[in-house]
Specification:
about 65% helix, 38 helices, about 0% strand
Length: about 650
């Protein structure tokens, strides 16, 4: 009885007030009250309400297949979808097999040419449709390449029939693609085919292609892929064709009437003066062309660098300053690999504000060694060390990175330029007339402003930073000798440079490019900038060279320093220009041995003691050399060589 009473009590506790039973479905997330006639939401109780499902035979088959059979089936389905999506899928599949055969190294030339002919026959009439495909584009590039190669081989063998056949096949591809060049130039895969066609095109075909670009040059330069085609055509074209591409970016009139420009008028200023064009309209058109390209960051091409140089010659102060502001930073590093790009970089350094120069220098961080080793890029570094007054930033970014790779740079033709500029600024021996002209280049509109802003003599600047808000044509406000002292001596570069010269004295003297570095270091640089701070180090260098010269002649394949062409002439120059070195060399290496070195390249070294303008150097050797001259063993030049002149 007690158990029954407990059961009844539990049932009463579970009842909901109002006499309704509690909901049995706890899986529902809805908190809304249920209607009286609503059906239960429990899925287990809904089986009777679901409609009848028909069995799927495909699903039953796939469940019974193995993993390998499932992979095969999936591959077949993918192939079927590709065939529906690509109308020439089967053709591309065949071409891919032919391509693998024709580029094999084991196949003979004749068989590869036959495969090329077979592939071209299959593609005939369908080339424009399949040229943008990843596979077909590669096949076409190979066909064009082998057609040109076969044509050249046939001409060498004087087989006219084969040469004409290969030329006809290549020309057929060009003619079929001619109406579609602009479309392919914007294609990610078609662009490579267009470049290959241009590389193997005849002069007439190249001229036809450049003519087809008329009216579309500016549009293509704004396209990431299309700009590559314009640059490639610009590099392959002659002077007239390059001018034809350039004038289209200058003015709308020149774009419509391209025959107005003659070949003689290469500069934009001359074209404006000759044709009496409105400078404002030309400037407006060029700005509309240049700005979108700079905003997209497509600045790697030499045609744009040329346009920017011409733009700076006519640009107003605000326009030129705006372009410099946009280029200042990592963007400029991508431009300085060309001659015109290097000039643009130097103009940005020269006319940029302190803030913009700082951006340019920081943008070069990590790339200094690569820039220094580039023929054009090294000139931008030369401009930096010659113009920028913020020597702390230059030391931190440029000088420190140069020191890390100093051993490689002193032997490099271009890498040594920034070092030589610090040791001997603007020397015509190390910089060509073009390089010197580039360093003195300036923007007319900004140069006029700078001249007006230069304070008169005797007035001190209010700002503490000599580089702030000042853009001088020939550099900053800081004295060039002070700038050189801070960058070369106080930074520790000079001491490190002397150590490298001591360690590698023999290699530097024998090197065609390293000999100039060791000569400038040994003489103490222009204006004796290394004296007296590094006199002890320089004496160690003189001792190191004298020790190498004092070594006896041997059958070693490495020539003795006095018998080598480069080292003998460098040592002669040092004797003429550096009396301290001449004394050390005589006392340690040449005294009592002049008769041994009186013949060959070494005689120029010995005779330099008599040609020296220093009386003490003459006295050292005269007693020993005079008997050799009287006996005719040693010949002395009639006219003494000028000090520091090129031998």
């Amino acid at each position: 009885m007690a158990a029954k009473d407990n059961d009844t009590r539990l049932k009463k506790r579970k009842q909901v007030p109002g006499g309704t039973k509690p909901e049995t479905n706890r899986s529902s997330d809805s908190k809304k009250p249920r209607l009286a006639g609503s059906k239960p939401t429990n899925p287990r109780n809904n089986d009777s309400s679901k409609p009848f499902k028909r069995p799927n035979p495909e699903a039953e088959k796939t469940t019974s297949l193995s993993k390998k059979e499932l992979r095969v089936r999936a591959k077949e389905l993918a192939e079927a979808r590709k065939k529906k999506r690509k109308p020439y899928y089967n053709l591309e599949h065949e071409l891919a097999h032919l391509w693998e055969k024709m580029r094999s190294r084991d196949i003979s030339k004749e068989d590869s040419y036959n495969l090329v002919s077979e592939a071209l026959k299959k593609m005939k009439g369908k080339i424009p449709e399949i040229a943008s495909s990843h596979v077909s584009s590669r096949v076409l590039q190979t066909c064009v390449k082998y057609c040109s190669k076969a044509e050249r081989d046939a001409k060498k063998k004087k087989v006219e029939g084969d040469a004409k056949k290969r030329k006809a096949e290549k020309d057929a591809v060009f003619e079929e693609l001619k109406p579609h060049f602009l479309t392919l130039a914007r294609s990610a895969y078609g662009v490579h085919l267009v470049k290959k066609m241009l590389d193997n095109a005849s002069k007439q075909q190249l001229a036809e292609f450049i003519s087809s670009l008329h009216g579309h040059v500016a549009t293509l330069l704004r396209h990431m892929v299309g700009s590559v085609v314009v640059e490639h055509a610009y590099q392959l074209g002659n002077a007239t064709q390059k001018q034809e591409l350039l004038v289209e970016l200058y003015s709308t009139e020149l774009q419509l009437f391209k025959d107005l420009v003659l070949n003689k008028e290469g500069r934009l200023v001359d074209i404006i003066a000759k044709l009496d064009l409105q400078k404002s309209s030309v400037l407006k058109h060029m700005t509309s062309v240049i700005q979108p390209i700079l905003e997209k960051g497509i600045v790697d091409h030499s045609i744009l660098h040329r346009v920017l140089i011409e733009y700076f010659t006519i640009a107003e102060e605000f326009s030129a300053a705006d372009v410099i502001k946009q280029l200042s930073g990592p963007l400029l590093v991508r431009m300085i690999h060309t001659r015109d790009g290097s000039r643009v970089g130097m103009l940005c350094v020269k006319h940029g504000s302190a803030k913009e120069r700082k951006k340019i220098i920081k943008g070069m961080k990590g790339h200094i060694c690569k820039i220094a080793s580039d023929q054009c890029g090294s000139m931008v570094l030369v401009s930096l060390v010659s113009v920028v007054d913020d020597t702390k930033l230059i030391t931190k970014v440029v000088i420190n990175e140069l020191q890390e790779h100093l051993m490689d740079l002193v032997f490099d033709k271009d890498g040594r330029r920034p070092l030589l500029q610090l040791l001997h600024p603007n020397c015509s021996r190390y910089l060509t007339p073009y390089d010197l002209a580039s360093l003195s280049l300036s923007i007319p509109s900004l140069s006029n402003k700078v001249e007006a802003d230069i304070p008169s003599e005797g007035k001190e600047s209010e700002t503490n930073d000599p580089d702030e808000n000042t853009k001088l044509v020939d550099g900053g406000k800081k004295d060039p000798s002070v700038r050189r002292q801070e960058l070369l001596v106080k930074s520790g570069l000079a001491e490190r440079l002397v150590d490298v010269c001591i360690t590698s004295a023999g290699e530097l003297l024998r090197s065609n490019f390293g000999k100039e570095v060791i000569y400038e270091v040994a003489t103490g640089g222009a204006d004796g900038i290394l004296h007296p701070t590094l006199d002890d180090k320089l004496n160690e260098l003189y001792e190191a060279i004298a020790t190498l010269v004092a070594e006896p002649k041997s059958d070693d394949p490495k020539e003795h320093l006095l018998e080598n062409f480069h080292s003998s002439r460098t040592i002669r120059r040092l004797i003429l220009d550096c009396p301290a070195f001449a004394s050390t060399l005589w006392n340690k290496a040449l005294k009592g041995k002049c008769e041994l070195w009186a013949q060959g390249h070494s005689c120029r070294v010995v005779s330099a003691y008599l040609a020296s303008s220093d009386s003490h150097v003459n006295k050292l050797a005269k007693k020993e050399l005079q008997p050799l001259i009287d006996a005719g063993t040693l010949k002395v030049p009639e006219v003494p060589a000028a000090i520091g002149t090129k031998e």
